[in-house]
């Protein structure tokens, strides 16, 4: 979907040889508007040379680089603008748009969060955040953002179009069409709304309406390939539709064989698919293709397994929705009685390994581990069994940490841990990088500088052990990792060095099938304080989960994405409140959004 980039202007500026930074910025904007992005960049360069603190010029130069596809370079310019003015909402918004283009949707959401925090009525930030959530499959949450945009500006056509798209993804086709209608009413030449409505009509099997909307698109833009292709597909479907058959089998009776409605009506299943069997009595002239399976008054859209008709017995697999499913099978105008069955996914078991070695110069690592484990003791809404193992104080040696990681692997092979389960690892310790191998490591309670390798656990070692466990895995690391790369590079504390550290950590975690959240990034320090009785990272986790402060959609369930969003806002705030340098949690994710805590 289309996003916007916001440009900045400055009225007064420093002048050099009669030309001001503001004038260079303005001429750069003019060239940018003409699509002359390289020339615009040269003008922004001059503006910045004259005034190195010209935040608008950095942001505008980032926009030009964005439009050239130089996304990483654009982000560095937005970073600089934010460094100059931490409340520069346009730079946060523009950086979020660029991260969307890079597929960094969680990071884009965080930037939109910050822009909205600065300006709660910043409608395009809500819209952009909705786009990122939709890309993550968070359709309901995206709709809430579009609702907010429309509340702020009832004539924002893109919000209606985007909300319709999200509703279409949820299968809410009629509601999606109403949103597209509204977008088209605001702008009768809004071709994107026409093509989206055409796709929705197609999903409903309304091919004539599909063709009509495609024709409208082509009237607006004769070269619109999407409209040409969808029109051709709809016309083909229309041509393939059989002519209406005369009504037959009026005396046909359909009745259930399986499930048995006398026994299984209102039964709840833990598997999402069930096999159904129906017998047709009263005619020998029946065909498999004329059977329809209706679930909650809609024809079943999922295609699971094969349908079969053996004699007069029809069978197929039915995919269930969470909650109640009113199922009936129809043949022309004849239908079975409604069978009501429920679907409630089987709860996974939760396996937690919480690790907190004790150190003379860290007061709260063991308490961090204990408090984190205690959070999940009563988690019965989302989980069946909770197997919690706390390894702390002197028992949390490097060898013991490795042993417990290996134990989880053996439990998976022995079916104690299943593929449906959730494994959470929490570690509060010192981080270290050895000169010999430049690997990120965790210190055990037995850490000895004489034999660093034996008394630390490399992050890659942990991942190698966890990688064989094919279930959902989440790793929380509350430690600092100064010196991940070349110490001379990190000593500069430049933006580039921090970017390289982030890349290094991403490489380390790319094998992990799940979430990994670090308490800090690059050369930052993880902080603790007596007022918290925890590290800042752990304190924010407790707030976000136990007290529901990370529950952004208000459904009493906290997901991994919500928690990370909260941590990224809350941990820096905890730092600044105590006068500490800021730490920014860092995340890698190849699992998607996962509900982890109910409060």
Structure in a nutshell:
45% of the residues lie in helices and 19% in strands.
Task: Record the SSE blueprint.
Elements: E1 15-16, E2 19-20, H1 21-33, H2 37-50, H3 55-67, H4 71-84, H5 89-101, H6 105-118, H7 123-135, H8 139-152, H9 157-169, H10 173-186, H11 191-203, H12 207-220, H13 225-240, E3 253-258, H14 261-264, E4 267-269, E5 273-281, E6 291-295, E7 298-299, E8 308-310, E9 313-319, E10 323-331, E11 334-335, E12 339-343, E13 350-357, H15 365-375, E14 386-393, H16 398-413, E15 422-428, E16 431-433, E17 440-443, E18 456-458, H17 459-467, E19 472-478, H18 487-491, H19 495-509, E20 514-518, E21 528-529, E22 534-535, H20 536-546, E23 557-559, H21 560-577, E24 586-589, E25 595-598
Parallel strand pairs: 4-12, 13-14, 13-15, 15-19, 19-20
Antiparallel strand pairs: 1-2, 3-5, 5-9, 6-7, 6-10, 8-9, 10-11, 10-12, 16-17, 17-18, 20-24, 21-22, 23-25
Helix pairs in contact: 1-2, 1-3, 2-3, 3-4, 3-5, 4-5, 5-6, 5-7, 6-7, 6-21, 7-8, 7-9, 8-9, 9-10, 9-11, 10-11, 11-12, 11-13, 12-13, 15-20, 16-17, 20-21
| Global outline | flat
Supply the CATH architecture of the largest domain.
Answer: 3-Layer(aba) Sandwich
Average the pLDDT over all residues and give the rounded result: 84
Rg over C-alpha atoms, rounded to the nearest angstrom: 29 Å
Structure classification: alpha+beta
- The total beta strand count reads 25
Total of helices? 21
Largest sheet: 6 strands, mixed
And the CATH topology of the largest domain?
A: Rossmann fold
User: How many discrete structural domains?
Assistant: 3
Uncertain segments: 9-17, 482-512
């Amino acid at each position: 979907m289309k996003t916007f980039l916001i440009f900045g202007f400055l009225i007064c500026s420093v002048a050099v040889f009669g030309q001001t930074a503001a004038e260079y910025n303005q001429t750069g904007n003019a060239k940018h508007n003409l699509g002359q992005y390289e020339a615009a960049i040269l003008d922004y360069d001059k503006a910045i040379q004259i005034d190195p603190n010209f935040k608008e010029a950095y942001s505008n130069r980032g926009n030009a680089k964005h439009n050239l596809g130089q996304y990483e370079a654009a982000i560095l310019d937005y970073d600089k603008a934010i460094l100059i003015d931490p409340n520069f909402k346009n730079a946060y918004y523009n950086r979020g748009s660029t991260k969307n283009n890079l597929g960094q949707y969680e990071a884009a959401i965080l930037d939109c969060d910050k822009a909205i925090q600065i300006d709660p009525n910043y409608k395009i930030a809500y819209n952009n955040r909705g786009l990122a959530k939709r890309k993550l499959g968070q359709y309901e949450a995206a709709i809430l953002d579009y609702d907010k945009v429309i509340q702020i500006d009832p004539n924002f056509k893109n919000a209606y179009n985007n909300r319709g798209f999200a509703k279409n993804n949820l299968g809410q086709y009629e509601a999606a069409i109403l949103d597209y209608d509204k977008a088209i009413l605001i702008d009768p030449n809004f071709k994107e709304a026409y093509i989206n409505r055409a796709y929705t009509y197609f999903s409903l099997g309304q091919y004539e309406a599909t063709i009509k909307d495609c024709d409208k698109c082509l009237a607006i833009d004769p070269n619109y390939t999407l409209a040409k292709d969808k029109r051709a597909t709809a016309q083909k479907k229309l041509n393939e539709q059989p002519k209406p058959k005369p009504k037959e089998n009026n005396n046909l009776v359909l009745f259930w064989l399986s499930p048995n409605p006398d026994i299984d009506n209102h039964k709840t299943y833990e598997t999402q698919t069930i096999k159904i069997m129906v017998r047709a009595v009263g005619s020998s002239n029946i065909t498999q293709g004329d059977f329809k399976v209706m679930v909650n008054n809609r024809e079943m859209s999922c295609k699971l397994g094969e349908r079969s008709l053996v004699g007069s017995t029809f069978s197929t697999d039915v995919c269930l929705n969470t909650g109640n499913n009113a199922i009936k099978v129809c043949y022309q105008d004849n239908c079975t009685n409604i069978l009501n069955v429920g679907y409630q996914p089987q709860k996974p078991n939760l396996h937690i390994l919480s690790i907190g070695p004790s150190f003379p110069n860290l007061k709260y690592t063991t308490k961090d581990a204990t408090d984190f484990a205690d959070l999940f003791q009563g988690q019965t809404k989302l989980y069946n069994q909770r197997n919690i193992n706390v390894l702390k104080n002197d028992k949390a040696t490097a060898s013991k940490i490795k042993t417990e990681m290996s134990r989880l692997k053996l439990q998976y092979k022995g079916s104690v841990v299943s593929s449906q389960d959730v494994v959470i690892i929490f570690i509060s310790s010192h981080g270290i990088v050895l000169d010999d191998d430049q690997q990120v490591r965790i210190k055990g309670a037995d850490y000895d500088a004489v034999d660093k390798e034996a008394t630390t656990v490399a992050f890659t070692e942990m991942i190698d052990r966890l990688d064989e466990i094919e279930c959902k895995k989440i790793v929380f690391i509350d430690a600092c990792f100064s010196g991940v790369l070349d110490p001379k590079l990190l000593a500069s504390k430049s933006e580039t060095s921090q970017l390289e550290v982030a890349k290094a950590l991403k490489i380390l975690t790319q094998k992990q099938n799940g979430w990994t959240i670090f308490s800090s990034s690059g050369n930052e320090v993880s902080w603790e304080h007596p007022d918290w009785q925890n590290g800042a990272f752990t304190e924010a986790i407790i707030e976000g989960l136990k007290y529901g402060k990370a529950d952004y959609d208000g459904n009493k369930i906290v997901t991994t994405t919500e928690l990370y969003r909260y941590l990224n806002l809350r941990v820096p705030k905890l730092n600044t409140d105590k006068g500490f340098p800021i730490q920014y949690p860092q995340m890698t994710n190849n699992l998607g959004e996962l509900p982890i805590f109910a409060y």
